[in-house]
Amino acid sequence: MTTYRTIHTTTYRYEGQVSQSISEARLTPRSFARQRVLESSITVEPDFATQQTRTDYFGNDVTTIAVFGNHDRFVVTASSVVEVGLAPVGELPVIPWESARDILALPPDAESLAASEFIFDSPYVPYVKSVENYARSTFTAGRPLVDGLSELNHRIHREFLYKPESTSIEVPLQEVMDKRHGVCQDFAHVMIGALRSLGLAARYVSGYLRSGADVQGAEASHAWVSAWVPGVGWVDFDPTNDVRPFEGHVTIGWGRDFGDVTPVKGVALGGGGQTVAVEVRVTPLVQLGNE
Q1: Using an 8 Å Cβ cutoff, are 205 and 223 in contact?
Q2: What residues contact residue 113 under an 8 Å CB cut-off, 6+ apart?
Q3: Domains in the chain, please, with CATH?
Q4: Secondary structure (H, E, C), the chain
Q5: Spatial separation of the C-alpha atoms in residues 29 and 222, rounded to whole Å
Q6: What percent of the chain stands above pLDDT 90?
Q7: Cβ pair 135, 271 in contact under 8 A
Q8: Pick from 41, 52, 46: which is nearest to 68 by CA?
Q9: Closest CA to 44 of 84, 86, 73, 13
Q10: Minimal CA–CA distance to 224: which of 250, 196, 247?
Q11: d(CA 264, CA 211)
Q12: Which of 31, 52, 143, 238: CA 20 to 30 A from 16?
């Protein structure tokens, strides 16, 4: 296990005064088999903001932040200490991808029934014919599921150009396919759409990468994909970096697509134009000489 301090700061600056704003933040890491959250907190400026917490449908922690009073700046800082381990190493089952599709079509148990929720279209990952064609060129008849997942992960990394700030979340999936460039959320959506077009279950994972790592997507929010493998459960793939997520990946949450795990979103009354700045640091505590 590696222990990290994560600090994620989102700063909104407004041209004028905002009289009130309400936001949702999904910035608290999850605890699960590969990850344990030791501490976590969210602080907000201005200091008269109020916070409430809840758990959403997918099990992610959500902090609702309300600011009632004039302000021209809104800052959300999430700080956590998280232990992260390697993904389990071992042989994954060799089953044809069609077998996984058939299990999800008629789920025989509670686990596969829960996974089957992730075979359907979602707001940011609608069905796109070109995405299905892209998937079918990898998932040929009888091909082992994990073999196909690994190649699809590799193909997206090889055939799409990582280009920071080249797209926004509003860019349609078809346009990403046409231009063949984008950022991590685009590549995750392409892989998810490809798998769902075949009746396979895939979910969007939001998180961070270790700062200073020789990977694409560090120093910012990152995204990757979980695919459901019968007999094993959810197996992660990072098409932006062509890797299976390792101890340098810190998981914040998961859902159907970006919209379910947006780090910070909300509405403000007044303010005119705004600028948004995001800074993320993920630092191993051993380097700090403490804990």
Answers
A1: yes
A2: 107
A3: 2-84+262-288 (2.60.40.2250), 97-246 (3.10.620.30)
A4: CEEEEEEEEEEEEEEEEEEEEEEEECCCCCCECCEEEEEEEEEEECCCCEEEEEECCCCCEEEEEEEEEEEEEEEEEEEEEEEECCCCCCCCCCCEHHHHHHHHHCCCCHHHHHHHHHHCCECCECCCHHHHHHHHCCCCCCCEHHHHHHHHHHHHHHHCEECCCCCCCCCCHHHHHHHCEECHHHHHHHHHHHHHHCCCCEEEEEEEECCCCCCCCCCCCEEEEEEEECCCEEEEEECCCCECCCCCEEEEEEECCHHHCCCEEEEEEECCCEEEEEEEEEEEHHHHCCC
A5: 13
A6: 86
A7: no
A8: 46
A9: 73
A10: 250
A11: 21
A12: 52
Q: Would you mind telling me the total number of residues written for the chain in this entry?
A: 291
**How far apart are alpha carbons 223 and 183 in whole angstroms?**
9
Nearest 5°: phi and psi at 8?
-125, 115
Q: What φ, ψ does residue 266 adopt, rounded to 5°?
A: 175, -170
State how far the Cα of 163 lies from the Cα of 160, in Å rounded to an integer: 9
Amino acid identity, residue 127?
Y
- pLDDT of 149 over the 70 cut: yes
Q: Do residues 210 and 4 lie in contact, with contact meaning Cβ atoms separated by under 8 Å?
A: yes
User: What mean pLDDT do residues 157-185 have?
Assistant: 90
Phi, psi of 74 (to 5 degrees): -135, 120
User: Do 190 and 175 contact (CB within 8 A), yes or no?
Assistant: no
The Cα 235–Cα 162 span in angstroms is 23
Q: Tell me the pTM.
A: 0.94
The whole-number average pLDDT for the span 126-132 is 98
8 Å CB contact between 212 and 196: no
